[in-house]
Write a structure and sequence with these properties.
alpha+beta, BirA Bifunctional Protein, domain 2, Rossmann fold, binds zinc ion
């Protein structure tokens, strides 16, 4: 059998690739209105970055990273030798740690300077069990804002995330925005301990994993899908009762801005999101129907301590990421149809192979003038050439044959209107050459009018 793509990866074929491009452009278009600028970081980083940034106890780092070392080092390791930690790499499982690393490395946030607002798009990698909406290589679009603790930053990020979903075509009534506050370094440790104690008090009723979470990452027990654990966790202490005054004020301010902007949200005190680095505001957007358990299509939060974790100067931050594949699943579940893009604007058909050299040159002239154009390369009959053009929804077909050439003309058929005009070949050539010289895009209709 021919070699297949690795499990959990997807080829973006031309149609999907065009949708991904549209998705990115839509997102960047919305985010840039809020002052965000693009950034691209490497697809792999030192493993240490994710260990320190995301947290060793998270599933992402402990189980799901694709890690690698290079040739010579692999030999050393297999031979029982030692490999320096900066020679161990991992494919990025998410975008935040890399962007924060880049901001620190290039000093993008200076004391007293304006916040760095950055947006990115690209593939992320997690060695997960593959299922619908859960791939090993998946595409994300995200933003990070470094350098401000202002709750308005949290609110505007949430607002622009919701604006994006509406812009891409998801119906507002099908989305559910959950928000919560995770507290800060002052109030969270005590809350974390309280949850750990609660877990140990209920050891006998919880699954093994949740019991072990008591020692590593107690808040993750809120995400356990097992029925018993969910029942128990209903009575667990809630962060909302443990927030310090500053965190309460910050949370209230975020909600105030959202109310002001007319953004509907649900406060979910059990929303903890998987990663260790979140402080204060966290949020998640879910699709109400048709997505099963994989219904989260985006989310994020504030991470005021992350910069220090990866070795930078103390710098507050906030970010979110949204999954491309799940968004598309959600759109399709709502019956959304992407426009079938017309790739070719023109097709040049040959009545007879004898005129191919002239047809070939007409194709080049149309392309130089800015029109996506193609012709037959398989010796097809005229009828078959029209069939090909029709199948590709090409709006204009130019027909060239010995008779036309002798008369110095070319026939142009408008495939949508089903009518034909005879054009003067010399005039057409001139109009196309003229169009090739201008920077402004020329309308094909104008070229045709000038040539008739
Ligand atoms: Zn606090
Ligand atoms: Zn459990």
């Amino acid at each position: 059998m021919a070699i297949q793509a690795p499990k959990g990866t997807t080829d973006l074929l031309p149609r999907e690739s065009r949708i991904w491009d549209h998705f990115k452009r839509t997102a960047f278009g919305v985010f840039s209105r809020y002052g965000y600028e693009p950034i691209e970081t490497p697809i792999f980083e030192q493993t240490e970055l994710f260990v320190r940034g995301i947290g060793e106890a998270t599933d992402v780092v402990s189980k799901e990273m694709f890690s690698t070392i290079t040739g010579e080092n692999l030999k050393t390791l297999l031979g029982g030798g030692h490999v320096k930690s900066n020679s161990r790499f991992s494919l990025r499982p998410e975008g935040t740690a890399s962007v924060v690393r880049a901001v620190a490395q290039h000093n993008l946030v200076t004391p007293g300077g304006v916040p760095a607002k950055l947006m990115y798009a690209g593939p992320m990698f997690r060695a997960e069990n593959v299922q619908k909406g859960r791939q090993r290589q998946f595409n994300q679009v995200g933003i990070e804002c470094l350098g401000s603790v202002d709750p308005a930053i949290d609110a505007e990020a949430i607002i622009m995330l919701m604006r994006f979903y509406h812009k891409i075509g998801l119906k507002p009534e099908t989305l559910r925005l959950l928000i919560n506050s995770m507290g800060c370094e002052k109030c969270r440790p005590a809350y974390r301990d309280a949850v750990a104690h609660f877990l140990l008090d209920h050891e006998s009723e919880l699954c093994e994993e949740c019991v072990s979470r008591a020692h590593t990452n107690p808040l993750r027990a809120f995400d356990c899908k097992k029925e018993n654990c969910r029942e128990v966790m209903k009575n667990a202490p809630l962060i909302i009762d443990a927030l310090c005054e500053e965190c309460k004020d910050h949370y209230a301010a975020v909600k105030g801005y959202l109310d002001e902007a007319g953004i509907a949200y649900i406060e979910d005190p059990t929303l903890v999101r998987g990663l260790d680095y979140y402080t204060r505001t966290v949020f998640e957007v879910q699709v109400v129907e048709g997505m099963g358990a994989q219904n989260a299509i985006g989310g994020g939060g504030r991470y005021d301590k992350l910069m220090e974790e990866v070795g930078g100067n103390p710098t507050p931050g906030l970010g979110f990421a949204l999954g491309f594949e799940r968004c598309i699943l959600a759109l399709e579940a709502q019956g959304f149809q992407f426009d079938e893009a017309r790739v070719l604007e023109c097709y040049v058909a040959c009545v007879d192979p004898a005129v191919k050299p002239q047809a070939f040159m007409l194709v080049q002239r149309l392309r130089d003038a800015g029109f996506a154009t193609d012709m037959d390369h398989q010796g097809k009959s005229l009828k078959a050439q029209f069939k090909v053009a029709g199948k590709q929804h090409v709006p204009y077909v130019f027909v060239l044959g010995p008779d036309e050439l002798a008369a110095g003309s070319v026939t142009c058929r408008n495939m949508d209107a089903h009518d034909e005009v005879t054009l003067n070949l010399e005039k057409l050539t001139k109009a196309l050459e003229q169009a090739a010289l201008t920077d402004e895009p020329t309308a094909l209709g104008d070229v045709i009018t000038q040539s008739s």
